[in-house]
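Data availability (excerpt). The following record was deposited with the supplementary files.
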Amino acid sequence: MSARDRRDDDLEDRLDELEDVLSDLRRDLRETERDRRGPPGAPRPPRLSELVRFTEQYTIPTIIALLETTITSLELLQGTLRLADPERSVAEGAASAGDRLATVRDGATAGLSRSLAELRTALSEADLPEDAASKSIVADARDLTAEIESRIDETRRAADAERASPSDGNRRGDDAESDTDGAVQIDVTDPDAEGEDADSRDAAEDVSTSPEVDVESELESIKRRVGEEDASDTGDEEGADDAGDEDTGDGHGSGTDREETGEGESGAD
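Predicted structure:
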């Protein structure tokens, strides 16, 4: 028998011994597990690890599925109610779209600001290189970062102001409506002023509605106005002359009366 055959026999013996040991160990484990479980007829209460595993694998996914189904059904109900009121659905859709756009814009601006802040921190903490070209590049990067941050801040402030201005206008309109509803207003105006305002409004409406001006009609209206003014001035002058003549006649009459009275007195004497 060669040395190789002897080694093979030894290896087979070792494998047989290992198999026997594993069989004994397997038998002992089965007996220990059987003793731990107790008699086969009595139910064993679940261990904590089994409860945790069952909760993780079955209970939580089932609850999540039920909640998702409930949310889906509620969304369907919401869509049905929205279809029943199309005007409200359009307004809410526009508002929600604007809110989503504002959210996306704010998120992008915040991300850019955060990236610029990190870049600025890295540039400020980094030492300037000795090379002149590299030093100028780092300095330019710092300046550009500061300029971009300032522009982002200005844009954000402008957007906030534009977003707040419609709400302020609506608030002022609501306050004005509430004041109008709660207070008694007395309109005290001048009739002449109202007439002038009405004439000016009519003239403005005529100008706005008629883009082409009729020159002949304008000239005729001006002539009529001038003629009416001349007629009124002539009437005033004639009235003044008549009044002067009446005063003159009264003076002559009184003088004649005085003369007749004097003659009578002299005759009596």
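Summary of structural features: The first helix runs from residue 3 to 37.
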